[in-house]
Amino acid sequence: MKAITAYQEVKQKITRDIVNGRYFIGQALPAEKDFAKEFKVSIGTLRKAVDELVSEGIVIRRQGKGTFIAEHDEQRLLYYFFHVIKHDADHKNYPKVELVSFQSATANSEEAKKLELKEGAPVWRIVNRLSLDGQCVIVDRLTLSKERFPTLTRSAFQNREGSIYQLYQAQYGQSVARTSERLRAGAANKQDAEWLHLKPGEPVIMIRRIALGIEDEPIEWRISTLNTERHEYFSELGA
Question: Pairing relation of β-strands 96-106 and 122-132?
């Protein structure tokens, strides 16, 4: 087994402290000199560990203020997690989200595999319609483990303040750090076609996403159906 480096060990310790609730959402991390002293490492080693946490979106640096535990807000959602944009547009818009259904169910084989559950484990299944410029463009189907979100209700989900990921973080301590997505071409089924103003069988893009937590644990499984008549999938990657 490959030995981990000093900065990787520091990164793991900070990550574990965040998971265990030592630091609250939005809270500043200790000053570099204090942090380095605590971990008995050089400032350079500490900075390398924090640099990786910044690149993964777990913490953010604010000029002249310090380093903070990242909060999910509208700007963060648009930049990191929402990748649909109007053809030839130069910026993203926040979608209007409408809850269609919220149901208790048991995990099928795909859901169990993606969420690392046993088949038949209790889950929540949620369907949302997302609109841009007054028209439904995306149909989202979400699956969540009841073990991870035991007290979630339709009312709490529908009446949340902010985004879905803000709800996960603020109410359940489940912070989405990154997502893993796969795209494939598909054909609209009858229900999605009605919502997306298409004919059944017309082409759509299917976006299959696992939302992962700070320790790469699966938090949410989502299948999104996108009408590409006026909108497209857009992701801009840094160097």
Answer: antiparallel
